[in-house]
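Posting here for the record, re: manganese (II) ion.
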Amino acid sequence: MDNPKPLIGITGRRRTGDKLRGSLEVMNHLCFDVYWVDYAEGIIAAGGIPVFLPLSLEPSEIIPRLDGILMSGGADIDPVRYGADPEPELQSIEPVRDDFELNVLDKVYENELPVAGICRGLQILNVYAGGTLFQDVPPHAARKEPPSSRVHEVTFDDGSLFSDLYGSSIEVNSLHHQSIDRLGSGFLATGLSDDQGIEAIEHIDRPIIAVQWHPEMLDTRDSDPLFQWLVQRSSERL
Ligand SMILES: [Mn+2]
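Prediction output follows.
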C-alpha cells in the first residue's frame, strides 16, 4: 500500500451499563469501554487511523503493532500511584484504568513509540515518570464553561518543541481540577498558565509530549499541532 496511514492507539475508560441511558436494566452490571470521539476525529483529521484500546487488552500484544499512542483525558489517578494519601478534594478514581495505562506505558517506553497526552494523559505520563500531582487546584479550574471556551493563556518556553508547534503562546480551555506538582524524570515543563501551573510537558530524549488542556474540544481541532505532531512522528515508524 502506498503511503499507509499510521495506527494510533487511544486509551479510554470503563463504565457499567447503569451509566448508559436507554440500555436494559438487566445489563446494569455489565461493562462498556468508551472514549470521546473528538480524540479520534483529531487523529483522523491529521491523517492517522485511531485504534481504541479496550481495557482488557494485554498491552504487550497490541503496542508493538501500533505506530503511536494518544493518552486521553478522564478521572483522577489514584494518589497511591504517586505515594500520596487521598485528600478530601480527590474525585472519582479508576484503578483498573490506572493499571492498564501504566502497563501500556511500560510497552510504549520499551518500543519507543511516539506519545501525545491530553489532560489525564499528561498526568499519567508524569506519574509514570515518578512525578506527583496536586490533587485539586480550585482557583484554576473553569469546569462550568463550555468545553470549547478559551479561558486562560499558556506561554511556551523559547526554543521548546511547543513553541515550534504553537508559537509563543495560545489561549486554551481548562477542564482539569488537578495539575502537575513535582515533574517526572526526563520531562521539561515548557508551557505554563497565567497562574504558573504546568500545562505542557515534553520529554528530553523521547518522542513524548503532553498538554493539560483539551485541543480536541477546541474549534481548531482539525488543524491542531499536537495531533499533527503525533501523526507525523508515528508516520516515521512506517
Ligand atoms: Mn488549565
